From TrEMBL:
Organism: Winogradskyella echinorum
InterPro entries found in the cross-reference section: DUF6089
Record Pfam families: DUF6089
Residue ranges constituting the DUF6089 domain according to the UniProt record: 4-228
Protein's UniProt name: DUF6089 domain-containing protein
Superkingdom classification of source: Bacteria
């Protein structure tokens, strides 16, 4: 993943005769988890999330985008509205890194070479990969490491609003849910098949997590020719 990210960054920053405008910046906000442990609230940030973002604007309506985000995903049954979870009282916490790449579409034209006020809602989707340690729970509810790491692939579903605040700065606020193809994030399904007896919860429902926050990006690049793409 490291070499793929370096290649992607190189493609974003190398300008050629048909150069578009680029954005590089930061993301800051919070994260929350939705699964077999903890609260089932969809938007309820409980840990800090931060990272970097890169965009390659191919037209006034769409851009390629990549992010690298760090957070600690947590879940506490004691904070759930489900009496059964409160009685069970499981909890988990783990550090994670997510890489995401895809395409962002604006609802209205957002021409970064046109001066003056500009703002628009936008949506973003693509594919995400969450690098995380594996856990399981023994009979007394103790979170136990498996001493292995996994990649949980998913689909980001992001809705946001961005606005130009100066000639070269864009501020945005967004909420992005990630549907994953894994049920292992909270330890309800151990990674090792030898520990299948420690599985619990709804094995027919995969895990979700959500990033909520703001981005601040700096724009640069020559005037584009939005042509044949």
């Amino acid at each position: 993943m490291r070499y793929f990210l370096l290649l992607l960054i190189s493609l974003f920053v190398i300008e050629n005769s048909d150069a578009q405008i680029y954005e590089v910046g930061i993301f800051a906000g919070g994260s929350n988890f939705i699964g077999d442990i903890g609260s089932t609230d969809y938007i309820s940030p409980n840990r800090i999330a931060y990272g970097g973002i890169i965009k390659w604007n191919r037209s006034a309506r769409h851009s390629f985008r990549a992010t690298l985000l760090y957070t600690r995903l947590e879940g506490y049954d004691s904070k759930s509205n489900d009496p059964r979870r409160i009685e069970r009282d499981y909890k988990f916490s783990m550090r994670t890194v997510e890489f995401s790449a895809g395409m962002e579409f604006t609802f209205w034209d957002f021409n970064l070479h046109q001066l003056g006020y500009q703002g628009t809602p936008y949506i973003y989707s693509g594919i995400s990969a969450l690098f995380h340690p594996n856990y399981y729970f023994i009979s007394n509810g103790t979170q136990t490491r498996e001493n292995t790491m996994s990649l949980a692939y998913g689909i980001p579903i992001v809705l946001g609003y961005k606005q130009r605040i100066s000639n070269n700065l864009i501020l945005a606020g967004e909420i992005g849910a990630r549907y994953t193809f894994s049920d292992e994030l909270d330890g309800s399904v151990p990674d090792s098949e030898n520990r299948e007896q420690f599985s619990f919860g709804n094995t027919n429902s995969n895990d979700w997590y959500v990033f909520s926050g703001i981005t601040l990006t700096y724009t640069f690049g020559r005037r584009p020719c939005y042509c044949n793409f």
